[in-house]
Amino acid sequence: MLLLSTLSACSSSDWQSRNHPSEEAVAAALTEQPDMVVLSQQTPLQFSLARMPEDVRPCCAFGNNHKVKVGSIQVPMFRYANTLSLDEIGPHAYEAGTWSLQRGEPNGRRHGENNGQIYTLRGGFIDLAHVRDTADNTVALFQRIYPQLGQAFSIELPAEIGPRELRFQAFSIDQLSPQQRLELAAQLAARMAYSMAEAHEIAQWHGYRSWKPWSETVSAYSPEDLYSNMLGAKIGLALIMNNLVMSRELYNQHMTQWLSASITQLHPVSKAQTNAFFDAIDGHWWDSNIALPSKFMLLKRHYQLGKQQAPYIVPQALAEADESWPLLAPLYAKRLSPLPLSLPATVYGIDLAGVAQQWLTVAPKFQGNFSHIPKHLWQSGFSNRKFLAISHFNQLQDEIELQAHFDQGTVN
Fold this sequence. Notes:
alpha+beta
């Protein structure tokens, strides 16, 4: 009955769920000294589903104070600034993007998300839009995975370069406690939400556009993207495990707090220092002379997809060579270690890659952009197991094109 009620529930901008205690939890609660592990055993009851996010948030190109072109014409007297400080991060709004206004606290004022880039000493550059997108997807997927956990089923995803779906294999969950089942479903949701982010990097490289007039190749494989996405997956997982996603309002307010706390854990710098870091790597990781959305505004890309991600920390040598070094020098004196992030391969003996995969089909309009990749890797559709191989061929092609860009000395 739980499965039927959940599957029949309609998706909406809001959602409602409640936790039903197990018989063992109720029995434990009535004892003098309850076993707290048993007491926490409960089953999520989903009365309505969160709508599956269809678009990513429209932010943020790597770098700062970008020049912008519309067609072949550069917009005069305009620079696109997309950096911010910790205290400027706005409240989270599920599936909302730029235009939503939300309260960060029950009695707080409404503000926009104010997404952008912020540099952290342990996590490098963080793209807040990517963090938020993957956290949202983690919650939406969990609501769909948990009631069908252990069964064979699929989840249709919004198309990018063609149809996408998540495919789940049947496996036994009889040996798992209610709490273990909840955790397993949450881990699968985080893993597949992150996989969706990997697919988006590939889609951008191969011509996908959220807004048709604007090329997104400049954002494909941007060095901060996947680390930011994994951070979002891990925050989403934490919120699920703490029963903080039972309604949209509850999720939004706690996501706001967890996002701020997670960035704090990574040791964020001021907006002026974030801008100084971007200045220090100008000409090395990005090129301020190239206007958006030209592809080779971005010079450094990250092609190493996978469930282990390390941040890109600006080398001290580049910072020392920049005129802003006096502003950055105190930060290097702290000598904080980078914080790699990872997602587990197995949970309670279940091989996650063996029970859940993402499958993509390349629509005819995008197939010409795969001409440099062996057809056996993509022509009949491909799963996330092929993502790394496809990214390798994209890297080789980028190296050829980037060298030609430098040789010609032209601004594309």
